[in-house]
Amino acid sequence: VVLADVVAGALEAAAEDAGRHGTGLAVRTDVRDPVSVAARAAATDHAFGTAQLVFANAGVSVGGAVWDVTPADWQWVLGVNVLGVAHVVHAFVPPLIASGLPGNVCITASIAGYLNQPAFGAYNASKHAVVGIAETLATDLREAGHDIGVTLLAPWFVRTALGSSARNRPADLDEATTPSAYTASVAARLGAWGHTTQDPDEIADLALAAIRSGEFAVFPYPPSRDAVRRRIDAVLAGGVLPPYLPD
C-alpha cells in the first residue's frame, strides 16, 4: 500500500498502521502540484511496480455563499478537489495502460457532485467537476478498449477531518472566506444530521466491493438515491431542487 498526504506526521502514522498488515510506503504529496503527484507515481513504480488500484481521495471544503467565497478559496478548493484528481489520473493511468494489466481508478466525489447544498458553492462546483472527470474517464477507457475500471464514490456525511481541512491551507492562499451568519445557520442545520454520519471503514468496504463487482457509482448513504432522483425530476420540470436540509 502506498499512502500519500500533504501532512508528514499524519502520513507517517497511517503508513505505520498499514505496515502492521503488510507493506506500507509513505510519499508526502501535494495533489495540487503535478510534479509532486508524478513523484509519487515514480516512487510507487520503483517500490512495487505498476499501480493497479489507484485511489484519488484528497479533498478540502470551504463554506460560504457563492458571492462571499474569495478567489484564494476558489483556487484552493479547485486545486485540491479537481486538479488533484486530474493529476492523479495523468500520473497513474498512462503507465497502467502501457503495462496491459487490468486495474481500477477509484475516485472520491461526494453527494455534493449531484446535489447542491446552500453555502457550499465552491465545494459543490468542485465535486460536480469530479463526477464529470470520473464519468468521462470511464467512457474513455472503455471506448479505447482498456481493461481498467473506474469507481466513483459519492458519500454523504462521513466521520473524517474534512470539516477542519483549513488546517492544511497553504500559506500563499491566505485570503480565506469570512464566515457569515447565513453560513453558520446552514452549517448548524447540516450538523443536525449527525445521525447520518458513516464510518470511513464502511465506505472503504463498499468501495472495494464495487471495484470487485464492476459497479461504477456508489452511494453509501441509502437516502442519497432518492435525493438524486428528486433533483433530476426537479431539473426536468424546469425548476431548482429545494435545499435538502433538515427543518
Task: Give a verbal description of the structure.
This protein has 247 residues and is an alpha/beta fold. It contains seven helices and six strands; from the N terminus they run βαβαβαβαβααβα. The chain has helices at 8-19, 34-48, 71-99, 121-143, 181-191, 200-213, 223-236, and strands spanning 2-5, 25-28, 53-56, 103-108, 148-153, 217-218. It has a four-stranded parallel beta sheet with strand order 3-4-5-6. Strands 1-2 form a two-stranded parallel ribbon. Helix 2 (34-48) packs parallel to helix 3 and helix 3 packs parallel to helix 4 (121-143). It is globular, with a radius of gyration of 18 Å.
- Assembly state: single chain
Largest sheet: 4 strands, parallel
Helix content: 40-55%
Strand order within the widest beta sheet: 3-4-5-6
**Coarse morphology:** globular
Provide a compact summary of the structure:
By secondary structure, the chain is of the alpha/beta class. 48% of the residues lie in helices and 11% in strands. The strands form two sheets. A four-stranded parallel β-sheet has the order 3-4-5-6. It has a two-stranded parallel ribbon with strand order 1-2.
Highlighted features:
247 residues; two-stranded parallel sheet; 6 strands
